[in-house]
Amino acid sequence: MPELPEVTGLVAFLSDRVVGLAVESVELASITVLKTFDPPPQALAGAPIDAVTRHGKFVDLDCDGTHLVFHLAKAGWLRWYEEVPEAPARPGKGPIALRVRLSDGSGFDLTEAGTRKSLAAYLVRSVDEVPGIATLGPDPLAEDFTRHRFEEVLDGQTGQIKGVLRHQSVIAGVGNAYSDEVLHVARVSPFALVPTLDEDDRDRIYTALRGVLAQAVQAATGKPAAELKDAKRAGMRVHGRTGQACPECGDVVREVSFADRSLQYCATCQTQGKPLADRRTSRFLK
């Protein structure tokens, strides 16, 4: 799933290419991708694109006051064309969910692999009309996301720290991959309960959160859309690297699997050498 750094890179990529152009048309190839009905897609025809911005994991194209907002979800991505194919996107054929044609002949498709369709697009007059944006927590790279603000975010949270970092209404933009990376750098177990974290733990998590994301944004900056996924994978320390050596201590990177996702961690660095048991068969080791 694209997270804050990749979405930031995608916004920069689109900004360089679409701002100042006008929308020629929006074609729906999936009847489920568009979650709104007013205004209709035809309302964007001829509208100039004034800006491209990010809200958490959402991309927002401001088209003369009407916003085309999309969330790529787990398996979605953007395919850019310098020249869009002449044939219209055909409903039910292949991974294309939505196509945007621009005034200079360029454009992009929103695509989604697999059968589980979660990619979502919205046409709204205000971004606050998008439910996922209206409930977003603070952006962890914002200037006002201070150590004190982080403490306020954690105040009252009782769950495991990994889940808290991933919860978009608590902190916006962090998902499964970067929560693994942040906690590895901070040397904290993904299943540590927030109330058990002392001040030093919280300091390390805050510093790691800002540092890991800033470094990943820097790595994504200037990359074309087609290279952002590979750049993300190349920068991972533990996430997606089950069985490989931890870059800090050399211990093996371990995995805990769930129904639809998995997490990776280093026992030596994060859990005092104790492996975490797979919750599908037993409780987590304490």
SSE layout and pairing:
Blueprint: H1 4-18, E1 23-28, E2 51-55, E3 58-63, E4 66-71, E5 76-81, E6 96-102, E7 107-112, E8 120-124, H2 131-134, H3 147-154, H4 161-166, H5 176-186, H6 199-220, H7 228-235, E9 253-257, E10 262-266, H8 267-270
Helix pairs in contact: 1-6, 5-6
Q: Report the strand count.
A: 10
Order of helices and strands: HEEEEEEEEHHHHHHEEH
CATH first level of the largest domain: which class? Alpha Beta
Residues in β-strands, percent: 15-25%
Biggest sheet record: 4 strands, antiparallel
Please tally the helical runs, counting DSSP H or I stretches of 4 or more residues.
8
Distance between the ends: 29 Å
CATH topology label of the largest domain: N-terminal domain of MutM-like DNA repair proteins
Q: How many domains make up the 3D coordinates?
A: 2
**SSE-based structural type:** alpha+beta
Q: Quaternary arrangement of the chains shown? A: single chain
Domain FPG-type: 237-271
Pfam family, one: H2TH
Organism: Marihabitans asiaticum
Cofactor: Zn(2+)
Describe the fold and architecture:
With 286 residues, this protein is α+β, with helices and mostly antiparallel strands. The protein has two domains: 4-134, MutM-like, N-terminal (N-terminal domain of MutM-like DNA repair proteins), CATH 3.20.190.10; 147-270, Helicase, Ruva Protein, domain 3. The protein contains eight helices and ten strands. The chain has helices at residues 4-18, 131-134, 147-154, 161-166, 176-186, 199-220, 228-235, 267-270; strands spanning 23-28, 51-55, 58-63, 66-71, 76-81, 96-102, 107-112, 120-124, 253-257, 262-266. The strands form three sheets. The protein has a four-stranded antiparallel sheet with strand order 1-6-7-5, with no helix packed on it. It has a four-stranded antiparallel sheet with strand order 2-3-4-8, covered by helices on one side. Strand 9 and strand 10 form a beta hairpin. Helix 1 (4-18) runs parallel beside helix 6 (199-220). The longest helix has 22 residues, at 199-220. Residues 281-286 have low confidence and may be disordered.
